[in-house]
């Protein structure tokens, strides 16, 4: 089961951790907090002259105020230290243009299950094309400066099919012309990034960057576990704060005859920073479109995704 951390509001206060006025259920008592603030400010003024290291000893308290006081959200806040994760990869929360690389898997497993909708059945590739058309059009309507490129996963190779462009017609035409191919027993995921590296230029370490690069890997094989042994150049790319790699996996219903779980766990190793999105959608059209809607979120503005493994 996959859940996302819900955005929370932060306020700085001068209280100590024990005087925050937060009760055991995670609720904040505003009266208690105000009293603690007054007491702490008086104590700081009384001891300012007598204690030269007073500023170092004082600790600022960050109050956690969930936007929704539901039981599930409070449990998430107890289990996960949101602020440590966010401060570890502190990036500007701004809407710079995104250069999005759509990595589309052409391979289709033999005797694969179809996507079922009210108006008929669709092959995995045709349903993926349909959702990608919606994604590209909606993303372009949000910011017309976003650019798209396309990389195709063939039997055992990767091809740079479309350079970066903001022209919707070119992107949609390229998506529509994608045809399916057969599946091989192995696939080297290094080929994808070796195809990407010469075609991109990562922004320098500047705040804010002129753009960010986001790769969305749409992997559709349920019996081929990808080989992931990254070179030093690829590791450097994946570690760059302005390069994000999301994964969406269309797969057969999970059972003992396929390797869906192993493939998904393997693809999670691509994320080295903890900021990527991973969505296994199976053969559910609803889940596919919902996941594509979540991928519309900007790489620098969206919340982190949290995994709960049963």
Automatic annotation (TrEMBL):
Coiled-coil portions: none
Gene Ontology CC terms, in alphabetical order: BRCA1-A complex; BRISC complex; nuclear body
Protein's UniProt name: BRISC and BRCA1-A complex member 1-like isoform X3
Locations listed in the record: Nucleus
Region of interest (Disordered), ranges: 1-57
One GO term (biological process): mitotic G2 DNA damage checkpoint signaling
Comp. bias regions, Basic and acidic residues: 32-57
Biased composition (Polar residues): 22-31
Gene assigned in the entry: LOC114345007
Alphabetic keyword roster: Cytoplasm, DNA damage, DNA repair, Nucleus
Main location: nucleus
